[in-house]
Design a protein that fits this description.
Number of strands: 12
Distance between the termini: 55 Å
Number of helices: 17
Structural class: alpha+beta
Shape: globular
Largest sheet: 5 strands, mixed, barrel
């Protein structure tokens, strides 16, 4: 039903409003303003369909405003190069089916509905953050507290990405876990009845999802928490795996395009990795180090490794990079982020009640955020913090998961045997000889399949779209790679060399340039 609904919406807009159609219609503003360099950006709802609306800078609207829009409609850019970013699919993952570049926008009236109420609440929270914090910190706080990261500094994003801590910039399972813990602690003395306390917690989680914009990772964590709470109230045992499957189908049912959402796979696989490996790795670490109790640093390192095991192939496939030092920043950030979230939410709430106290808390918060920025900056420069890798074949990723789940199955079946072997310092033979032969044959077949394209001795010429410039990739019959020009690498607006040509080469499985030809330069 969800799939049919989304396909119907797409085709209705594809048929009614082809590319570059002039559109004139009434719509409702349903999102807060995002300030871009030359335009303002809004989310507008027209006939039950969400669209992006770009207006001039002097125009300002609020959720609940009904506006008459005239402008050019487009569906969003598809990927212009092999393996490139498909903006149209990205929008559809958010339930948005096109873009209107407005020539005229006139406010007709304003109404009070769900969108206006949520918008006013979010605007109030955002305004308090603006008052309490300087520009350097407010965008970071808006991202981790209410899910608005649109104006976050690019250098901060880059440092967080290189340090493998980008997950803290968006509302994720970690945030939901700490928020739930905070609410439980706040209700501990006020309400003694656990079931009533749980009902309040469920209501808050629904409110939290609404305020943070229903990001996939937040929805996953919140619904799983709600299922766990309901199972307690109904005196039923909660099964993690069944809950995970139920939430997956709910998210895909709401919007089938979420199946292509990277955040969905990172969120689900990291959670699954923690459940599958955390206890086992903790036990091995205890046996090897002979520690009776692990410290908070040890726990965070093991937690980071457990989460990374299943998401590494996705990260390599999408971002063409992997970090060997991911556990270093994560082990420290996991400790600092708890007081950051606590002081952040408390300072905002107190700003409505008693502003001076909120201002004092904001000073403490600033030092904590500065510490997070400094850790990300230092860790981004650590050797091997970012290693670039060519895009792997899908069959390699499938084989990786096959081997991982085989190992999980083996260790679960022989849990006590493996533990005895570790304690007695004996070697662990995971595979017998017959299984080693089978796996060896499978690996040989995969290696042949993945390298079969290298047996193609034809001359190949690829033209790469770098906007206002030329770029040509020539692959000779003998495997030499030649790049002729590369776009405007020194452009202040957009570095096509770094953001287009380099990822393109990795997607084409090219890790070496033999000749670089520059026809001219500015």
């Amino acid at each position: 039903m969800g799939l049919c609904y989304d396909i119907a919406l797409i085709f209705s807009y594809n048929n009614k409003y082809p590319e570059n159609t002039y559109l004139k219609s009434n719509g409702e503003i349903i999102g807060l303003k995002e300030e871009k360099q030359y335009k303002n950006k809004y989310i507008v709802k027209i006939k039950n369909t969400k669209l992006i609306l770009y207006t001039s800078k002097e125009k300002e609207f609020f959720p609940g405003d009904i506006v008459l829009i005239e402008g050019d409609f487009e569906k969003g850019e598809v990927s212009r190069n092999f393996g490139g970013f498909n903006y149209r699919n990205y929008l559809r993952q958010k339930g948005i089916y096109g873009i209107i570049n407005a020539k005229s926008v006139v406010k007709v009236k304003e109404i009070t509905d769900f969108y206006s109420i949520v918008g006013n609440i979010k605007y109030s929270l955002s305004s308090k953050i603006d008052i309490l914090y300087s520009e350097k910190y407010r965008s970071f706080l808006k991202g981790i507290l209410i899910g608005d990261t649109y104006d976050l500094d690019e250098n901060v994003k880059e440092n967080f990405r290189k340090s493998s801590i980008s997950h803290i910039l968006a509302i994720s399972g970690m945030h939901v876990t700490y928020v739930v813990m905070g609410i439980r602690l706040a209700l501990e003395k006020l309400i003694l009845d656990k079931k009533k306390k749980n009902c309040i917690l469920i209501c808050f989680l629904i409110f939290f999802m609404i305020i943070t914009g229903f990001s996939v990772s937040c929805v996953r964590a919140s619904i799983m928490s709600i299922i766990g709470i309901l199972s307690f109230n109904l005196n039923r045992k909660n099964n993690f795996y069944i809950s995970l499957i139920i939430v997956f189908f709910i998210i895909v049912f709401i919007n089938p395009f979420n199946i292509f959402n990277v955040g969905l796979w990172l969120s689900f696989l990291s959670s699954l990795g923690i459940i599958l490996f955390n206890k086992f790795l903790s036990r091995i670490f205890q046996i090897k180090t002979k520690l009776k109790k692990l410290s908070i640093i040890h726990i965070n390192i093991i937690l980071s490794i457990s989460a990374q095991i299943l998401i590494i192939p996705i990260i390599v496939y999408i971002f063409n990079s992997v970090s060997l030092t991911f556990f270093i920043p994560n082990s420290f950030i996991s400790i600092i982020i708890v007081p950051v979230l606590a002081f952040g939410y408390i300072s905002i709430i107190l700003s409505f009640i008693f502003f001076p106290v909120a201002k004092i808390l904001s000073y403490i918060e600033k030092y904590l955020i500065f510490l997070i920025f400094k850790i990300s900056e230092i860790c981004a420069e650590i050797p091997f913090s970012e290693i670039y890798i060519c895009t792997p074949k899908i069959i390699i990723i499938i084989m990786y998961y096959f081997i991982i789940f085989y190992i999980v199955k083996y260790f679960r079946k022989n849990k006590y045997k493996v533990e005895r072997m570790l304690l007695s310092k004996r070697k662990i033979n995971i595979f017998d000889k017959s299984k080693i032969k089978k796996i060896g044959i499978i690996l040989c077949i995969i290696i042949i399949i993945t390298n079969i394209n290298k047996l193609d001795f034809r001359l190949k010429i690829y033209f790469i779209d770098v906007a206002q410039g030329d770029c040509t990739l020539v692959v000779t019959p003998f495997g030499k790679n030649i790049i002729i020009d590369g776009g405007e690498g020194n452009s202040d607006k957009y570095d096509y060399g770094k953001k287009v040509v380099f990822p393109y080469l990795l997607d084409r499985n090219i890790n070496k340039i033999d000749y670089l030809v520059v026809s001219h330069r500015r």
